[in-house]
Amino acid sequence: MPDFPIIQTQNICKSFYLEGGQEIPVLRGVDLEVQKGEFVALMGDSGGGKSTLLNVIGCLHPATFGSYFLDGEDIGHISDDYTLAFIRNRKIGFIFQSFNLLHKLSALKNVALPGIYHGMPKEEREQKASQLLIDMGLFDHAEHRPTKLSGGQQQRVAIARALINDPQIILADEPTGALDSHTGEEIMKIFMKLKSKGKTILMVTHSPSAAHYADRIIFMRDGRIIDQNYKIPK
Amino acid sequence: MNLEILNMAGSALTSNKTRTALSALGVVIGVSTVILVVGIGLGAEQKVEQQFKNLSANSLIIMSEMGHDAIGSSKLGIEDVDLVKNASMVKTATAMLGGNVSAAYGKESASKRVIGGTAEIFPISNLNIGAGRAFTDEESADRANVAVLGWQVANDLFGDGNENDSVGKTITLKNKKFEVIGVLEKNGSGMPMLSPDDSVYVPILTAEKALFGSTGMFVINAQITDVKLVDVATYEITTMLRKAHNIRKGRADDFQIRDAGSMVAAATGAAAMMTNLLISVAAIVLLVSGIGIMNVMFVTVTERTREIGIIKAIGGRQKDILTQFLLEAIILSITGGVLGIIIGFSAIPLLNQMEGWYVMPSLKGALLGFIFSGFVGIFFGFYPALRASRLDPVDALRGE
Questions:
Q1: How many Cα atoms sit within 13 Å of B84 on the Cβ side?
Q2: Cβ pair B313:A88 closer than 8 A
Q3: Model-level ipTM above the cut of 0.85
Q4: What count of CB pairs under 8 Å joins A to B?
Q5: φ, ψ dihedrals at A169, nearest 5°
Q6: pLDDT tens readout for residues B140-166
Q7: Contact A27, A51 (CB under 8 A)
Q8: What would you report as the CA-atom Rg of chain B, rounded to the nearest whole angstrom?
Q9: pTM, whole model, 2 decimals?
């Protein structure tokens, strides 16, 4: 085990600005450490800053202030699109509440898509995508469009897509939020499998039963972490 | 890599076929307009060239001033030819008296342009005798009823391919008998009805006496010694004619003098101006079609905001998104351009079948159309593509 956390933020602040220039602070100094291979759930009140924190960690938008180390590298000050896109492509896999698949593409093509931006040759890309769909139990649906699939199936396609470039980190924003409890359980079992393969998972969730699977729950309120090791009340 | 993005751009276009077709339609119309317009312009220029093929650059054309209220006696006449011939800068001069009369041989008859001239008319007008001979000075002076036929006239009266058999035969012009003494070589120039091929040549005095009287159109064609002397020669002839016609100082000329060079230049200039005017019309059509493409691209970007967000989240760079949307616009406009070229070229033969139309197909038109359409795609596709590439990924993912 390396002696540094794979994700480390120090005093991260993020504000949005209204058109009149008025500042809306969303993150007010977040210190977070996630170790390699750890499965961490982020819980908290709505508007508490969970998703914004996840987006900063996922390099989807930069922090206003503070430092962010990813795998030991200080990337908090990087603003060039080329590098940020590279990180999103290689180091991070995103999973969303609403799946965010491209409806015009088949399941297989959706899974293979990040491989295009990786520069993977078509054959390798589609072979990897097929293997991932087999792992997700969806091989029969490889040529189907997402609209033909159930919610649980769509989320499994999205998970396969997040894995195609073999990232170290999985960031999930309410992955079970649009699914019934039984399907949600299935998705969490896949997450446990990913954890067993050494992936680091950071998951925003409202669902106590999903959070239950995590090694640790972090609780946020008003843009701050108020509990690094939250216990769900019985 | 770029091939993959090209592929994605293509499949995005085929996923909404109606919209793609409608937005390409503007370019199709624009480019086929360019093709036709360039063809019409070139056709007009060529027509002008043909029309003046029989005019030497050092010709001066002297004719009566139309609608001039000059006193009866002072009018341009055959006697003025000798006067003009004596001008110091004039090499040679010939007069022409022309008009339309009915020409007949046996059962064949047609209205033909008859030109009365002196023997010099053939060298001055660059006309070659194909069979038989030209009329002599004696025949001119004797007012002999002899005629030299244009190539087409001989074919019309004696049957196709028999033009040389006409020499020695007798035809009638305005019901008077004329002996055919010669036939011209095929000239192939000019507009129908005004070409030497469609004309009959007779001695000028014969034309005046037997055919026209004073009703025909009278023209003196003077060859000056040097093209550079056009202005001086014009002045000299003007002075001589004013004196001969007793025109007092301050009164207008009862004739006008034009030089071949400026007549050609004016006609060519008019044709070129028409071409430019038509090209500007086509450019406006393309501009409008470009704005149409830009509009469609903006709608597309708005509709696909979420897709753009997803592509950014999985590692697509701004450059990749810019490339994809720009390629969509370029494919759209170039497809329209190629279709426009095909339609434009197919329309040319159809238009040429219509009376009075002459459209010339040209590589210039095709290239111009193709370059324009590509330019429209790049120019009007760039801004929407740039906007797409610069969307904030989080906002885009939230968008619908």
A1: 31
A2: yes
A3: yes
A4: 61
A5: -120, 135
A6: 888 888 999 888 888 888 888 777 788
A7: no
A8: 33
A9: 0.71
